[in-house]
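Deliverable D4.2, example record:
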Amino acid sequence: MSAEETYDVIIVGAGNAALCAALSAAEQGVKVLVLEKATLEDRGGNSTFTAGGFRFCHNGVEDLRTDILDDMTPGEYDSIGNLPSLSEDEFMATLMKVTDNQADEDLGRILIGESRDTMRWMRKHKIRFIPMFGRQSFKIEGKHHFYGGVNIEAVGGGWGLVDMLVQACDRMGVTIKYETGLRELIQDQKGRVTGVRAFGPDGYVDFHAKATVLACGGFESSPEMRVRYLGAGWESCRVRGTQHNTGDGIQAAMRIGARPHGGWSSCHAVQWDISAPPYGDRVILDNFQKHSYIIGIVVNMQGKRFIDEGADYRNHTYAKYGKEVMKQPGRAAVQIFDAKTHDNVRDEYRIREVTKATADTIEELAEKLDIDVEGLKAEIAAYNAACPEGAFGTTYNPSILDGVGTKGLEVPKSNWALPIDTGPFHGYVVTCGITFTFGGLKINTDAQVLDLTEKPIPGLYAAGELVGGIFYENYPGGTGLLNGSVFGRLAGKNAGLLAKAA
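Output generated by the structure prediction step:
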């Protein structure tokens, strides 16, 4: 017989979405339990492995200084040349654009409309933020010019975010149990979810509660589910984050009749160093990613370009270009930069664990990286000839869409098309790294999980990466953490209110 414990609200998971749900539920004055499948040392889900970046609506740096960046130093403020505002209309247009107009507009309006207030709420819980100087800006005449809509990160990145959220939960009296993973949801005779059965250090335990929030991630760490839903070959990709996101919450909810929803055949997948381990490294974290491709070119091992590196800002393309690498021979590609732009690559290119080569000629670079030599020479010659001559003058500014593109190529480069013609040349070998899956459970605008007849399952809420319907095929950078925070806060509040009224 299983042991039993009783709480008011149970939160399954301990990443950003789950911890925001726990904080919001605790604000309602109820007894909250967080169940974390991982160990204390391995806590935090995918959130730990992120850069901690948030995309949200604001009116520029002066607006942010009033609350979100209230502890920014004068030197940091003075170093900013441009930090663009982001309106609700701009955010919605970007979300719909990158998802091919498939995103659920009702959920999108909540995500965007609540974004500013949710960030303010997190700051009140002592979560600290800072401009993303190192990753989301280019220095022009000594000033940082930010781009792409996601310009603010949690201090300490994803690890810092999780640590600050855990401390906030401690202050609110939330109980966290580690090494305790969900096995099934418990229902009464009327179908109300009354808790969860979990497996912990001492065996099975039935945790009872008046409301339950599922926030334990997608299925990207399950090779079987990746192949089933994403397709053949996906068992071989690298997982950027936690090994524990194996679809447990999704499957448990579907076993009691929850409605699957969203982009089940699509995911967030990026270019990832080919020597990275199978799952996320808690020391290197997200530094295996390689996101400066917009100022270079990307070729497969035959030397052929296959993506438009300058199609849009990095934040609007990086989450879909990993999937394109998966389609290439050997599931591998090489990012190439010349001396004109290499100094501007992001910090992740400078880690010791990088897979790279440097050479004075293209032929030598191809030989060092096992790229087809003649194929690469021909491709770069064609690319260079298609670049407009002298288009940039003395100003090369990747913080704006400049419209300087190639002419006549089957695979264009639509912006920032600068020839690769000045040695030394640098090549970085990448493969596909999956971040999270887009398919999941269907929720309503109160974050209640819906059943197959579109009715709420009483007592069950969901938030974060296991919710489907918000992202399809692609995603705007920095929206994942915001999604977790906004809907975690909403789910936790409604679960807490339900428990309090019961």
